[in-house]
UniProtKB/TrEMBL annotation:
Keywords: ATP-binding, Cytoplasm, Nucleotide-binding, Proteasome. PROSITE patterns: AAA (PS00674). Gene3D superfamilies: 1.10.8.60, Nucleic acid-binding proteins, P-loop containing nucleotide triphosphate hydrolases. This is AAA+ ATPase domain-containing protein.
Length: 458
């Protein structure tokens, strides 16, 4: 009597992942040899005929054995599929290990610019702080295990510090909070300058205090009047006319009422400028009420151009910074009178983008000029010479009358040079002759084209 027989090789159990890879990579003929086989169809028919002559118990045992063989066959196919999946995971893990070696390499912070494919991305690595430029752009591989849903420009990402420079992680949105906090001015860094230390500029002081200081120190006045205070103020004028000095006085006057952040155009032109704008404004809102001061704003707020002059990469980067700045100042965040006030200073207001200067973003524009009258120059002289030991024969009116168009910075330089000449002679008292020499030293060193530029502003 014929009986059903099978040959069942042992289930593959590779000792290493490499062996598993070999099993998966084998051709179909090799896999077929390892698959269990059954009796030929004719022999199977004979077995079915023989089952007729078996008693019920033996027949049930044979049929149960055949069902068990089918179950083992399914388990074998499932095991092969598991080997296939594990081999794929092994290959992916091996690729990640190659990207991550050496394990002690530091990670590099960068900004995601563009996704080229599932495996490649374009990133910008910023220059060192204050280094200028718009950073360097690289096409880098992307770690296979990264969640592609998180790779949304301009996300903050981490690159492997080795030769591969692979994109290995997506940083959380608040990862740059520490970098943004570096721009906050507080404590010992807060300027000591007050409004009384600034000579002249009475009209500029009034306009800036109304727009920035009053909404922070006396918000009830605006609430009673039923008006929204200005969101942004632009200070413009030639160099040396006191724009930054007045902002320092504002920072001191509002030190107990608002947080103060100071940036420069150079900080934002460097790589990651758009992200830095976003992070600084996010932190400013968290600490609101607050003031964000952007000095030399024309570096990132100049009118947009197509960048077709061969510097397209830098132009596109600056445009991204400007667009981010416009977005943050757009007024959709509900800052209200307890939100963020923005002060910008520039020497080239004519180059500023019109979209930035519209009401709702920049609500007040304050012009700074060189002192235009003898009285104004005398007020600046009094402020600069307030702490100096002056000889009784010093006539500050005579110094104030000497030249039209002297900026506040020039007048301060005259006082400083006069004091240096007294120290050079071993004296503690500054004389009128010291002021004469200081005046000629400052005015004589100023190029003619600079003097002509000042006359243009005036």
């Amino acid at each position: 009597m014929a009986t059903a027989t099978t040959l069942q090789p042992p289930l593959p159990c590779p000792a290493t992942a490499a062996a598993a890879h070999d099993i998966f990579a084998g051709d179909e003929q090799q896999q077929q040899k390892k698959k269990p086989f059954y009796l030929e169809e004719e022999e199977d028919d004979l077995v079915d005929d023989d089952l007729l002559y078996l008693d019920d118990d033996l027949r049930q045992q044979v049929m149960s054995a055949e069902r068990h063989l089918c179950s083992l066959d399914e388990k074998y196919d499932h095991a092969l599929q598991e080997i296939h999946n594990l081999t794929k995971e092994f290959v992916a893990d091996e690729a990640e290990m190659r990207l991550m070696l050496p394990p002690f390499a530091p990670l590099v912070a960068a900004e995601l610019d563009e996704i080229l494919s599932d495996d490649l991305a374009v990133v910008t690595i910023p220059h060192h702080h204050g280094g200028g430029g718009c950073g360097e752009r690289f096409v880098v591989p992307v770690l296979p295990s990264l969640d592609r849903a998180l790779l949304t420009p301009p996300a903050s990402v981490a690159l492997h510090g080795g030769k591969s420079m692979a994109l290995v992680a997506v940083l959380p949105p608040d990862a740059a909070a520490t970098a943004a906090a570096a721009f906050e001015v507080s404590g010992a860094d807060m300027p000591e300058l007050t409004y009384d230390d600034i000579g002249g500029m009475e009209e500029q002081k009034r306009e800036v205090r109304e727009a920035i200081e009053l909404p922070l120190t006396q918000p009830e006045l605006f609430a009673a009047a039923g008006i929204d205070p200005p969101r942004g103020v632009l200070l413009y004028g030639p160099p040396g006319t006191g724009k930054t000095m007045l902002v320092k006085a504002v920072a001191r006057a509002t030190a107990n009422a608002a947080a103060f952040f100071r940036l420069t155009g150079a900080d934002l032109v460097a790589g990651g400028g758009a992200r830095m704008v976003r992070d600084v404004f996010r932190l400013a809102r968290e600490k609101s009420p607050s003031i964000v001061f952007i000095d030399e704003a024309d570096a990132v707020a100049a009118a947009r151009r197509d960048g077709g002059d061969g510097d397209g990469g830098a132009a596109r980067h600056v445009n991204r910074v400007l667009i981010e700045l416009l977005t943050q100042m757009d007024g959709f965040d509900g800052d209200g009178d307890a939100g963020v006030r923005v002060i910008m200073a520039t020497n080239n207001a004519g180059d500023m983008d019109p979209a930035l200067l519209r009401p709702g973003r920049i609500d007040r524009k304050v012009e700074f000029t060189a002192p235009r009258s003898t009285e104004e120059r005398r007020m600046v002289l009094d402020a600069c010479a307030k702490g100096m030991s002056l000889d009784g024969g010093v006539d500050l009116d005579d110094v104030a009358k000497r030249r039209d168009g002297m900026s506040a910075a020039e007048i301060a330089a005259v006082c400083r040079e006069a004091g240096m000449r007294a120290i050079r002679d071993g004296r503690c008292t500054v004389t009128g002759d010291d002021f004469d020499q200081g005046y000629h030293a400052v005015v004589g060193k100023m190029p003619r084209d600079v003097a002509a530029e000042f006359q243009f502003y005036n």
